[in-house]
Design goal:
The relative contact order is 0.11. It is built from 7 helices and 18 strands. Strands 4-3-6-1-2-5 form a 6-stranded antiparallel β-sheet, with helices on one face. Strands 9-8-7-10-11 form a 5-stranded parallel β-sheet, with helices on both faces. It has a 5-stranded mixed β-sheet with strand order 13-12-18-14-16. α3 links the parallel β8 (about 135-140) and β9 (about 160-165). It folds into 3 domains: about 1-95, Elongation Factor Tu (Ef-tu), domain 3; about 110-220, Nucleotide-binding domain of ferredoxin-NADP reductase (FNR) module (Rossmann fold), CATH 3.40.50; about 235-320, Ubiquitin-like (UB roll). The chain has helices spanning about 75-85, 120-130, 150-155, 175-185, 200-210, 255-260, 295-300, and strands spanning about 1-10, 15-25, 40-45, 50-55, 65-70, 90-95, 110-115, 135-140, 160-165, 190-195, 220, 235-240, 245-250, 280-285, 285-290, 305, 310, 315-320. The two termini are about 25 Å apart. The protein is globular. Helices cover about 20% and strands about 30% of the residues. The longest helix is centred in the middle third of the chain and has 13 residues, at about 120-130. The protein binds FE2/S2 (inorganic) cluster (FES). FE2/S2 (inorganic) cluster (FES) binds next to loops. FE2/S2 (inorganic) cluster (FES) binds near residues 273 and 291.
């Protein structure tokens, strides 16, 4: 973990807090370099750990910048950033990790951002602009008022590559996704990157797949996701391989919750199947994958799963715990 200080906190658009973080001891603990699309884990003052994408240029060596939307359905993360963190607050963060990197072989990149999903996309635009790589950037928001980083984008070197699309705007400025996808389908080496809320992401990915885009050229990162959990979910058992302990997982209960009731703690963060923190090896049995973190190939291998949200298709799952 790294110790950082909040050197600047400002508000952007209607409800986005933008934080700049610098090392508390630049001499002894400089900030590690990061690549576009990377995120950090932030230990919040209320004890929660949340992931935030870095939205500044990867060329910045002395600061990290994050943007956090106040979420009305917050489970405590965004509220803590907005209400408990001030300029001067010190925080513990992880080194940057990147599950959403740019493909170096791309001949052209299409960047699609929905709402606060713009944060990793901004960092990608900074990087592609710095290396003079061709790209288009489409940024969809509800309205101009809730378009975070609007002034920064207009003042950037890549401003002419950006198209803004607002839900409350006229038809002409809306994102015509099918046309955009069709216009690049025949070209070789075009990669598409999308980040945003689940509905936006599902729309883009499903449209791209339907338009025949190869999976290897589609890159996405969920910004929180709904966990499908219901009391009518089938019960099953998980076995802790190290002790043999057998635990029943009830409908509407997660594997993490069931294990915790028996004193077995699994580290979690998002609890929505998007961050990868809780990944656990499966030694026997077939998981019912419900996460958005593992790839289709990893799901098919069935040798790991996300116990914060995924369940089991077999009566028993033996876990490497
Ligand atoms: S805690 Fe984030 S994927 Fe499980």
């Amino acid at each position: 973990m790294l110790q950082v200080r909040v050197t600047r906190k400002s508000m952007d658009a209607e409800d986005v807090a933008v934080l700049e973080l610098a090392s508390v001891d630049e001499e002894r603990q400089p900030l590690p370099a990061f690549s576009a699309g990377a995120h950090i884990d932030v230990q919040l003052p209320n004890g929660l750990v949340r992931q935030y994408s870095l939205c500044n240029s990867p060329a910045d060596s002395h600061r990290y910048q994050i943007g956090v939307l106040r979420d009305s359905a917050s489970r405590g993360g965004s509220t803590a950033v907005h209400d408990l963190i001030k300029e001067g607050t010190t925080l513990e963060i992880s080194s940057p990790r990147n599950h959403f990197p740019l493909a170096i072989e791309a001949s052209h990149s299409i960047l699609l951002a929905g709402g606060i999903g713009v944060t990793p996309i901004l960092s990608m635009a900074e990087r592609l602009s710095a290396i003079d790589a061709p790209f288009d950037f489409h940024y969809c928001t509800r309205s101009l008022q809730c378009t975070a980083f609007h002034s920064r984008i207009l003042a950037s070197a890549f401003a002419t590559r950006v198209s803004f699309h607002h839900d409350d705007g006229d038809e002409g400025q809306k994102l015509h996704l099918r046309e955009l996808l069709d216009s690049h389908r025949e070209a070789t080496g075009v990669h598409l990157y999308v980040c945003g809320p689940q509905g936006f992401l599902d729309w883009v990915i499903q449209s791209a797949e339907a338009a025949g885009w190869p999976a290897a050229q589609l890159h996405y990162e969920y910004f929180g996701a709904e966990v499908s959990k219901s009391n009518s979910d089938a019960e099953f058992e998980v076995q802790v391989s190290s002790s043999g302990l057998l635990v029943r997982v009830l409908g509407g209960q997660s594997v993490v919750e069931a294990l915790a009731q028996h004193g077995v703690q699994v580290e979690t963060s998002c609890e929505q199947g998007v961050c990868g923190t809780c990944v656990t090896r499966v030694l026997r049995g077939t998981p019912d994958h419900r996460d958005h973190y593992l790839t289709a190939q990893e799901h098919a291998a069935n040798n790991q799963f996300m116990p914060c949200c995924s369940r089991s298709k077999s009566p028993v799952l033996v876990l490497d715990l």
